[in-house]
Design goal:
Blueprint (H helix, E strand, L loop, with lengths): L14 H36 L21 E14 H4 L7 E9 L2 E8 L1 H6 L7 E6 L3 H5 L8 E6 L2 H46 L4 H21 L3 H27 L10 H7 L5 H12 L1 H21 L5 H30 L1 H9 L4 H5 L2 H35 L5 H18 L1
Antiparallel strand pairs: 1-2, 1-4, 2-3, 4-5
Length: 431
């Protein structure tokens, strides 16, 4: 979803007009700082109070992918593949066929790795790929019993190289198109994930109030991301104010919806594991925190776009009345709402596609399927995020219009300024 923001060429303005415009922008920043500075201080204080302490951190669980004594996990390049009798190399039952990936192992020419049927059916393993597999060849020496069955078993693919290349390509494309601002956005994204990893997740694991953790963590992320990527300006501060309002609305709706819709968080694959690892962490609280965080990106997008739209409209036509300016900006906002609602819905639908497919294969009424445990969380996420997003647009627009009108001075506009300069340049010709 792309947005184009046309900027007025300030080289066409006279020096007095430029000075007035810069002074108006400074006044706007000061005006907004009176509102945002206390919020920033409160956010920092709340983060310090709730900052996770090492002595309260749950004991780390063992690596679920660690091998048992006598077994190892190896990685190697697949040299060749074959479908053959399981009893030949895989250690299986004679007369049954197995898909074998002959893979390199240090100190040995190749070892026969048994590939599970689900991998064979969905994708298969090809020569030249790197895989991770379980090596049970040393298990007999530890247990004292002869090992029967497969000795080398497929675990997973090694995806480091393709995912690394994709990440580098993404960074290069963003920087090439957005340049310095794109680079700052990527650095800001890294900072946002640092807040998520070092504050939000540990605080949830230690039993801090999920709603407060979500609000404080999300506010800290938005302060850092918006100002770092877009700079300190009245536009950015206006967008931040609209974003914080959207966060409050989303958090309030999420707190009500999680309880009213009885979202327990136990329908996922990791629910009971989290309960055991965190000594009874509230899974519904984790869902609540996730509902707030999931809408940050789109919320930031619409508020910064709407704030920029108001400023551009005002600079193009500074004599426009407050009512006309708000109406013009909201026309842009309504188009943005229409496109963003589809963006949120299809983004969540795509991520939940396996669940949607499973539900569609069940013989049950549509209403029961949509309100069942498998889909209820995603649907509530879409509805809560969309409501907060939609309400943030008129609020951001109203704040931006108020700031522009309170701090800006009516000017002649770029066309009038250019015409004045042309008239001044032609004055000697008429003498």
């Amino acid at each position: 979803m792309g947005h184009s923001h046309s900027h007025v060429d300030e080289s066409t303005l006279t020096r007095p007009e430029l000075r007035r415009r810069k002074a108006a922008r400074r006044r706007a920043v000061v005006l907004l700082s009176w509102i945002l500075a206390p919020v920033a201080v409160l956010t920092m204080v709340a983060m310090l109070v709730m900052w996770p302490h090492a002595d309260n951190t749950p004991e780390p669980a063992g690596n679920p992918y660690a091998a048992a004594p006598g077994a190892t996990i190896n990685s190697g390049k697949v040299l060749r593949t074959a479908t053959e009798d399981c009893s030949l190399n895989a250690g299986g039952t004679a007369g049954t066929e197995c898909f074998i990936a002959y893979t390199e192992l240090p100190g040995m020419a190749e070892v026969p790795v048994l590939i599970s049927p689900d991998i064979v059916q969905t994708r298969g393993v090809n020569a030249g790929e790197t895989i991770r597999y379980l090596n049970l060849s040393g298990l007999a020496a530890v247990t004292g019993a002869e090992h029967t069955g497969p000795v080398y078993i497929f675990m997973d693919f090694v995806r480091t190289l393709p995912m690394g290349l994709l990440a580098v390509l993404y960074a290069l494309v963003v920087v090439a198109v957005a340049r310095w601002r794109g680079l700052r956005a990527i650095v800001g994204l890294v900072g946002a994930f640092a807040v998520l990893a070092w504050f939000i997740l540990p605080a949830l694991a230690q039993g801090q109030p999920p709603l407060l953790v979500a609000l404080v963590g999300s506010s800290a992320i938005m302060f850092g991301v918006l100002y770092f990527a877009h700079g300190f300006s009245a536009r950015t501060s206006t967008a931040l104010l609209g974003t914080l309002f959207g966060l409050l609305v989303t958090a309030g709706l999420a707190a009500w919806a999680v309880d009213a819709a009885a979202l327990t968080g136990t329908s996922g694959d990791y629910g009971y594991q989290l309960l055991n690892l965190t000594q009874g962490m509230s899974l519904s609280g984790m869902i609540l925190c996730g509902l707030v965080i999931s809408g940050l990106g789109v919320l930031n997008d619409v508020t910064i776009t709407q704030s920029s739209a108001v400023w551009e409209l005002h600079e193009m036509a500074p004599h426009t009345s407050t009512r006309e300016l708000f109406t013009s900006a909201m026309r842009i906002g309504r188009d943005h709402i229409a496109s963003t609602v589809y963006t949120i819905a299809f983004a969540y639908a795509g991520s939940a596609l396996p669940v949607l497919l499973m539900v569609s294969l069940y013989d049950q009424p549509l209403l029961s399927a949509l309100t069942g445990a498998e889909l209820a969380e995603e649907i509530v996420r879409i509805l809560v995020g969309s409501i907060g997003l939609v309400l943030a647009i008129p609020v951001t627009t109203a704040v931006a219009v108020a700031v522009v009108k309170a701090t800006g001075r009516p000017g002649r506009g770029p066309q009038a300024a250019l015409a004045a300069e042309d008239a001044a340049a032609r004055a000697p010709e008429r003498l």
